[in-house]
Design goal:
Layout lengths: L1 E3 L2 H12 L6 H11 L6 E5 L7 E6 L1 H6 L6 E7 L2 H8 L11 E7 L3 H9 L4 E5 L2 E6 L15 E3 L6 H6 L7 H13 L2 E5 L5 E7 L5 E6 L8 H15 L4 E6 L3 H9 L2 E5 L2 E8 L8
Parallel strand pairs: 4-5
Antiparallel strand pairs: 1-2, 2-3, 3-4, 5-14, 6-14, 7-12, 7-13, 8-9, 9-10, 10-11
Helix pairs in contact: 1-2
C-alpha cells in the first residue's frame, strides 16, 4: 500500500480517473480537493504505483484520532480488479473495520465485497439504495439558465449551519452539525437570503465535491429560489475545475427533472451513495 503525496503523482492519477468517470467520480472529487489545499484532510492510497489496480480516498488518520467529537472514517474507492480491492480492504493499514466508517459513492458491484469484509470484523452495514447519479459535464449548458435579478444570492456562513443541519433527517446529530459547519467553512455553497439576511434556500458541496443538502423552506417553494441557488453553486464548482454531481433518490422525480433541465446526465444504477458501517447497534450518519 502506498500513499500518494507528490503533486506529480496526484496529477497523473487525476488524468487516469478523469477517463473513468462516472464510476470514479467520488475518488476524483476527493483527489481534486487534496490537490487544492486539502482543507478536508483527505489522502489517496493505491495498491502499487505507477501501475495500480485500486485507489482509495480516505480521511487522514490524524483527523480521526484528534477530532473533539468522535468522527467516522470516510472513504471511497475505484478499482480495476475486485480481487485486488479485496486484498486492499483486508489490509488493516488501509481501513480499520472496527471503526465507524462511511463508504461513499461506489459502483454497486463493490457493495457485496465491502459488506463481506466489514461484517467479518463484526460490524453492521446499513445500505442506502435507489439513488441516481447525476453528473453535469458541460458548463456552457448553464448559459440559458438566467438567475432572478431580484433575489439576493450569497454563500452560506458558519452561523447558518444549525439551520441547515436541522432540515436533514438526522439533524440532531453532533456529527451532522460539525460536518455541515466544515463544509460551509471550507467548500463552495450558495443560498438565497430573505430581506433580513437569513437563508431561505441553499445547497453546498462536500469533501468529495458532491452537491448535498439542497433545501428550500416550505413557504419559499415553487418560486425559482432553488434553481437560482443551484445555478450559482454549479458555476462556482465548474470555475474551480471540480466535478459537478449529486446522488438523487429515484423517487424524487422533481429533483431529477430539474437537474436534467440544467444539463445533468442521469447515470441510473452506476453508483450507490452510502454504506454506513457501524458497531453493532450503532448509528453513523454523514
Amino acid at each position: 500500500m502506498f500513499i500518494l503525496k507528490s503533486f506529480k503523482d496526484l496529477s497523473t492519477l487525476k488524468n487516469i480517473l478523469l477517463k473513468q468517470i462516472p464510476q470514479s467520480i467520488t475518488v476524483y472529487g476527493g483527489l481534486l480537493h487534496i490537490m487544492n489545499s486539502n482543507r478536508c484532510s483527505l489522502e489517496i492510497c493505491v495498491d502499487s504505483w505507477p501501475n495500480f489496480n485500486t485507489v482509495i480516498c480516505r480521511r487522514q488518520n490524524k483527523v480521526l484520532t484528534s477530532h473533539p467529537v468522535q468522527f467516522p472514517n470516510l472513504c471511497t474507492m475505484f478499482t480495476k480488479d475486485l480481487e485486488n480491492l479485496r486484498a486492499m480492504l483486508m489490509d488493516d493499514r488501509v481501513i480499520d473495520w472496527t471503526q465507524d466508517t462511511i463508504v461513499r459513492g461506489i459502483p454497486g458491484s463493490y457493495c457485496d465485497l465491502i459488506k463481506e469484509v466489514s461484517t467479518g470484523s463484526g460490524m453492521d452495514v446499513k445500505e442506502f439504495k435507489g439513488y441516481n447519479l447525476m453528473v453535469h459535464h458541460n458548463p456552457e449548458s448553464l448559459l440559458h439558465n438566467e438567475s432572478d435579478p431580484t433575489l439576493k444570492i450569497s454563500s452560506l456562513k458558519v452561523s447558518h449551519a444549525e439551520l441547515v443541519a436541522k432540515q436533514f433527517d438526522f439533524g440532531g446529530s453532533d456529527l451532522i452539525l460539525n460536518h455541515v459547519r466544515s463544509c460551509i467553512q471550507h467548500l463552495p455553497s450558495a443560498c438565497i437570503l430573505d430581506d433580513s439576511g437569513n437563508p431561505v434556500s441553499w445547497c453546498f458541496s462536500d469533501e468529495l465535491c458532491e452537491m448535498r443538502m439542497a433545501f428550500t423552506l416550505p413557504e419559499y417553494r415553487r418560486t425559482g429560489h432553488m434553481k437560482t441557488a443551484l445555478t450559482a453553486l454549479i458555476k462556482q464548482i465548474h470555475a474551480m475545475g471540480f466535478p459537478v454531481y449529486a446522488h438523487v433518490s429515484e423517487e424524487n422525480t422533481t429533483a431529477i427533472n430539474m437537474l436534467t433541465s440544467f444539463g445533468f446526465c442521469n447515470y441510473c444504477g452506476v453508483t450507490e451513495p452510502f454504506l454506513f458501517i457501524v458497531k453493532p447497534g450503532g448509528i453513523c450518519i454523514h
